[in-house]
Amino acid sequence: MKTLGSLFDGSGGFPLAGKINGFKPVWASEIEPFPIKVTRKRFPEMEHLGNVKNIRGG
After folding, report:
1. Cys-Cys with 5: which of 18, 27, 38, 55 at CB 3.0–4.6 Å?
2. What is the dihedral of CA 56, 44, 31, 34, to 10 degrees?
């Protein structure tokens, strides 16, 4: 299965579109509390990494 990560995730529109098209959302980056609650409800297995400044690309 193809996987994806989402930078500046918002309320999870990109992971939702990915899931509809056969991708597995693995992680997301978002700092706003309400959008994080939305994506946690839609994708409880997805890891939330917080601020993009703190993500290491490796």
Report:
1. 27
2. 170
Residue 20 dihedral angles phi and psi, to the nearest 5°: -60, -30
Report CA 4 to chain centroid distance, whole Å.
8
SS3 label, residue 36: helix
Q: Which residues contact 48 (CB under 8 A, 6 or more apart)?
A: 27, 28, 29, 30, 36, 39, 40
Kindly report, residue by residue over 23-45, the tens digit of the pLDDT. Answer: 999 999 999 999 999 999 999 99
Strand order in the sheet with 23-28: 2-6, 23-28, 47-48
